[in-house]
From TrEMBL:
CC annotations in GO: membrane
Main location: membrane
Membrane-spanning segments: 20-45, 84-103, 109-131, 152-171, 191-210, 248-273, 293-313, 320-341, 347-372, 384-406, 412-433
Pfam family, one: MFS_1
UniProt keyword annotation of Nucleotide-binding present: no
Topology with respect to the bilayer: Multi-pass membrane protein
Organism the protein comes from: Undibacterium pigrum
Protein name: PAT family beta-lactamase induction signal transducer AmpG
Keywords from the named record: Membrane, Transmembrane, Transmembrane helix, Transport
Length: 439
């Protein structure tokens, strides 16, 4: 997500290497780190015996740094080059994941582990800022449009690898290599997850070495702050101009509430899959979770996103926004149906997940396009776009923090009824969403 502080960025000189050498690997690395922190960590906490409330809460706190990154984006602009920050943050993140694997063997490791995760999340957000900066300042507008699809596809491969492949591998290691009981949650799962985090550290270290050779330095943006005073002025001015937008509070409500029901579903969906049938879950192993939720489900998201983009391009955003909201929210009912009938067929479970994920991808396109076309335009387009995505991240964090506790209180079936009720604010903000810019 782009967080440059200015709009009018002059074309940079051509990179020495084709963007194909560094754009796909850069956005894959960004997504891999993000997903390990904010999504896969919740599954790990669950495997290690943490209850749903704490597992969802602790993983959701790690979204905070990504939510507030517009607040420190201007300061990253001031020093060295953008490539310098990308390389440094990726290297330290790799070392940090090695540290995660090591501290899991310590007594009372949880406090140190969460501290490391928080540091890594801040570094991950900084990497995102710098990497987006390299992208927008090294490529002219034509090249940015040309590689936008590759950028998006590469980012989406990260969740498939993390929530699909690595979760699957954690189950295989736990069962086949370490010979532990896959149905028992507890400390035995640490053996498998140590290996997973070492693998992630190795992948990111390889990406660091690759980007050191292939990534351009990134040009300075127009009006880059020269000192802390200038950076603070730009930050203050971007806030002032943001709140001067016509109907800004309706747009803020849209940015925060459009994915409200998804926020309540995001962490609990995987928990529902792996919890035993006796507790209202479906009793899947990590291997099946990785295949069903993290692989087939995310492929469905990609397909839905492609078709959603085509749908909006053909018919326009304003006449389709409410339809897109229906696509995001109504298929959440598949989880309610699965919680009632608790199907044993993997095909039925996969179909339920794929339906929800496909329509989520289809409808979410409308959210991003609305932010780009209606909320972002103005003096600080990219910063204001980042404010919008930050509000979405804040929604994901707040709903994630409370979702596990609510689920424990209500049980799965009643909780998924609550998720359906949580779609109502999304429909309301879509109905009243203002359109002041021409599409």
């Amino acid at each position: 997500m782009i967080t440059e502080t200015e709009v009018n960025i002059p074309p940079a000189s051509p990179a020495r290497k084709s963007p194909l050498f560094w754009v796909p690997t850069t956005y894959f690395t960004m997504a891999l780190a993000y997903m390990m922190l904010t999504n896969v960590s919740a599954i790990m906490f669950k495997n290690m015996g943490m209850d749903n409330g704490k597992a969802a809460e602790y993983a959701s706190y790690l979204i905070l740094a990504y939510t507030i990154k517009p607040l420190f984006a201007s300061f990253v602009e001031m020093y060295k080059t953008k490539k310098f920050f990308v390389i440094c943050t990726q290297l330290i993140i790799a070392v940090g994941f090695v540290g995660v694997a090591l501290v899991m063997s310590l007594p009372n490791y949880m406090l140190i582990l969460m501290g490391l995760f928080c540091v890594i999340s801040f570094l991950g957000a900084t990497m995102d800022i710098a990497a987006d900066g390299v992208y927008v300042t090294s490529l002219d507008s034509k090249a940015q449009s040309l590689y936008c699809g590759i950028q998006s596809l590469s980012w989406n491969i990260g969740p498939i690898v993390a929530a699909g492949g690595l979760v699957y591998l954690s189950g295989k290691l736990h069962t086949d290599f370490f010979h532990h009981d896959p149905k028992v949650f507890g400390a035995d799962w640490m053996d498998a997850w140590r290996v997973i985090f070492l693998i992630v550290a190795g992948i990111i270290a390889l990406m660091t070495a690759w980007h050191l050779r292939t990534m351009p330095e990134g040009a300075k943006a127009e009006n880059t702050p020269a000192n802390v005073k200038d950076a603070l002025f730009i930050l203050r001015d971007s806030f002032i101009t943001f709140f001067q937008k016509h109907d800004v509070w309706l747009m803020i409500a849209f940015a925060f509430l459009f994915r409200l029901s998804i926020g309540f579903l995001e962490k609990i969906g995987p928990f529902f899959m792996v919890d035993p049938v006796s507790k209202g879950g479906l009793g899947l192993s990590n291997e099946m979770l990785g295949l069903t939720y993290g692989t087939y489900g995310l492929i469905a998201v990609l397909l839905g996103s492609l078709l959603g983009g085509w749908f909006v391009a053909k018919r326009g955003l304003q006449p389709t926004l409410f339809i897109l909201c229906c696509a995001v929210n109504i298929p959440n009912a598949s989880f309610l149906v699965m919680s009632i009938f608790q199907p044993e067929s993997l095909w039925l479970i996969t179909a339920g997940v794929a339906i929800e994920k496909f329509f989520f991808g289809f409808g979410s396109v409308g959210f991003m396009i609305y932010l780009m076309q209606q909320l972002a335009p103005g003096k600080y387009t990219t910063t204001h776009y980042a404010f919008g995505t930050g509000l979405m991240g804040l929604c994901m964090m707040v709903t994630g923090v409370i979702s596990g506790h609510l689920q424990q209180l209500l049980g799965y079936t009643n909780y998924f009824i609550f998720v359906m009720l949580a779609t109502i604010p999304s429909f309301a903000v879509c109905w009243f969403a203002p359109f002041h810019q021409k599409e």
